[in-house]
Design goal:
Elements: E1 16-17, H1 25-31, E2 36-39, H2 47-64, E3 68-74, H3 75-85, H4 95-99, H5 113-126, E4 136-141, H6 145-159, H7 161-174, H8 183-189, H9 194-208, H10 218-240, H11 245-264, E5 271-274, H12 277-280, H13 296-304, E6 309-323, E7 332-336, H14 344-351, E8 356-359, H15 364-369, E9 373-377, E10 392-396, H16 397-400, E11 403-410, E12 417-418, E13 424-425
Parallel strand pairs: 2-5, 2-6, 3-4, 3-5, 6-11
Antiparallel strand pairs: 1-8, 6-7, 8-11, 9-10, 12-13
Helix pairs in contact: 2-5, 6-7, 6-10, 7-9, 8-10, 9-10, 10-11
Length: 433
């Protein structure tokens, strides 16, 4: 276990200051020619995690030619951001209207001013570029079952009537259960054969996707929505069984989607992934592995090591965060208590209470020190600051990540306030965040 006594090793000389975009030079040097950059976050509601990921992403896009951002969000909603930043037809007048589409709880994860500011930058970056050179923004997650079903049926009816019949058959498997309270309940009672219908649809869409060219990226949109349908069934079926399999199904889906995106772009494509630390930090360096769990970071390292993979985690000592008291509860700003004793966050604060960037493989001593197991805070969309000790994941930090960004005190991000009907409540937060 790392303790503050470790300061005798004089680790400070290996810490890089973290005050502005120029301070990211050591991270960009570490990234080099790597094609897979995974950027984490220790919560889904912290301003600085979003803005620092945006700063890193801007430099990677401008200086190293990265192709797209892939995030822990639903494909249909994120694809609307992708259309808007690329100025595709009927993509919306402004980013506020686009972000209103994120109406599934927790809305604040993507419907916030930090994303509005970054999307506005992406649109400006893409302006005047050829379509093939425009930076994209895509969702990797598996939750959007109903939306994906509706999108693919509507689209195929126009473009591929024969395959549309398969889509309707798959949709009809689940339609009687659409009004139920949870996806999981659908798969406890859905009729047999739904899985076969969905898999048949996915195969058909993949075989015919080259024909879907009346809209830009229509073939990609059709294929990913079909993939969501196929994997959503496996995910919610596993969740209905109350086992841990649903985690693995979900993360495997996100990697399968990521691989599909990379295959869709050219052979030199490079991707930046934005997800929670629990997804992008290698599961083998935590207790997850002993429970049979894997994650995106582990799978990407295993599958794409030769192409260069860099995992960067985030953390903070104290501050505030946007979260809910329970699943589906109203979002609210909550305090983030000081990191508990013998945690990574407490160690980094006590040793040197400044924002810092750490590149673990720059020095053997540094890597060895942070390979000792230590508690590392993880805050989800559901959070209780009074139950703080339950939020720490024992981690071998230098094995879990290649780099780590520590912000001593953070603040909650700034959501777009949405009414239940999706109507935007005006806010005053500036776009220049």
């Amino acid at each position: 276990m790392i303790s503050v006594k470790t300061e005798k090793k004089d680790l400070e000389k290996y810490y890089h200051p973290l005050n502005n975009s120029e301070d990211l030079d050591p991270l960009l040097e570490r990234i080099g020619d790597s094609r897979y950059i995974l950027l984490g976050e220790a919560s889904h509601g912290t301003h600085e995690y979003y803005t620092w990921r945006a700063k890193i992403s801007k430099r990677l896009i401008e200086e190293k030619g990265f192709s797209f951002i892939a995030v822990e969000g639903d494909w249909p909603d994120c694809y609307k951001i992708n259309k808007w930043i690329k100025d595709y037809p009927d993509s919306g007048e402004n980013i506020q209207d686009v972000l209103k589409e994120f109406d599934r709880w927790p809305t604040w994860m993507w419907a916030n001013w930090e994303i509005a500011a970054f999307a506005s930058w992406l649109k400006q970056y893409n302006r005047g570029r050829e379509d093939k050179n425009k930076a994209g923004f895509y969702g990797l997650d598996v939750y959007s079952l109903w939306d994906s079903m509706e999108i693919i049926v509507d689209y195929l009816e126009k473009e591929d009537p024969e395959t549309a019949k398969l889509a309707k058959n798959a949709f009809q498997c689940f339609e009687p259960y659409k009004a139920r309270d949870s996806y999981a309940s659908v798969f406890r009672s859905a009729k047999e054969g739904c899985k076969d219908e969905v898999i048949k649809l996915l195969k058909e869409v993949r075989q015919n996707s080259h024909k879907y060219d009346t809209e830009k990226e229509a073939d990609l949109n059709a294929e990913i929505n079909a993939l969501v349908m196929a994997n959503a069934e496996k995910y919610y079926e596993a969740m209905a069984g109350f086992g841990d399999d649903s985690w693995n199904v979900r993360d495997r889906h996100m990697v399968e989607t990521l691989n599909t995106l990379m295959d869709y772009h050219d052979d030199n494509a490079k991707v930046i992934v934005w997800e929670h630390n629990t997804h992008i930090g290698d599961a083998r360096a935590t207790g997850m592995a002993s429970n049979g769990l894997l994650n995106v970071g582990q799978l990407v390292r295993e599958q794409h090591k030769k192409d260069g993979v860099v995992l960067a985690g985030f953390g903070s000592y104290k501050g505030s965060v946007m979260a809910g008291n329970s699943w589906g509860a109203p979002m609210k700003k909550m305090r983030v208590p000081e990191g508990i004793e013998n945690s990574l966050e407490n160690f980094l604060h006590q040793y040197d209470p400044k924002d810092k960037l750490i590149i673990f493989d720059e020095n053997k001593e540094l890597a060895e020190t942070f390979s000792e197991r230590i508690g590392h805070r993880a805050i989800g969309v559901v959070y209780d600051p009074d139950w703080e000790r339950g939020n720490y994941v024992p981690s071998k930090v230098s094995e879990r990540y290649d780099a780590f960004l520590f912000i001593d005190e953070t603040k909650a991000l700034h959501p777009l306030k949405l009414k239940p009907n999706g109507e935007l409540i005006p806010e005053t937060y500036p776009f220049g965040i």
